[in-house]
Design a protein that fits this description.
Layout: H1 4-7, H2 12-22, H3 36-44
């Protein structure tokens, strides 16, 4: 969530309010690695593979 400030023009108050409302009853699950959707997009050739 650290990069969300950039999305809202650096407005930390707006970002905090938005996240507070979105995440009020949410469960946050941190997953390591690429998402399945990203894997499928790369496999289909829509997204370039990243070089690590």
């Amino acid at each position: 969530f650290a990069q969300w400030d950039e999305t809202f023009g650096g407005n930390t108050t707006l970002t905090a309010a938005m996240l507070d409302r979105i995440l009020h009853h949410a469960h946050i699950i941190q997953i390591k690695g690429d998402s399945y959707r990203l894997k499928q997009q790369r496999k289909a050739g829509h997204v370039p593979t990243s070089k690590k």
